[in-house]
Write a structure and sequence with these properties.
The chain has 1 helix and no strands. It is mainly alpha-helical.
């Protein structure tokens, strides 16, 4: 078993994540709008896709 006694003391500082500043109110509002838009598109997107398919199917059946 190997025991490294070179530079064994003092022990290293405990790791801590780097601190980041809080988001500004403008950025928080923008993220809220983006989340809302994505949720809306989650519900509306499949309906729009179905409408496009209903238009394309008769065009290719000719």
């Amino acid at each position: 078993m190997f025991l490294d006694l070179h530079n064994a003391w003092p022990p290293p500082e405990p790791w801590s994540p780097p601190s980041r500043p809080r988001m500004t109110k403008t950025r928080e509002r923008m993220i809220g709008w983006l989340l809302g838009f994505n949720l809306l598109m989650l519900l509306v997107g499949p309906l729009a896709g179905a409408s496009v398919l209903e238009i394309l199917v008769p065009l290719f059946k000719r």
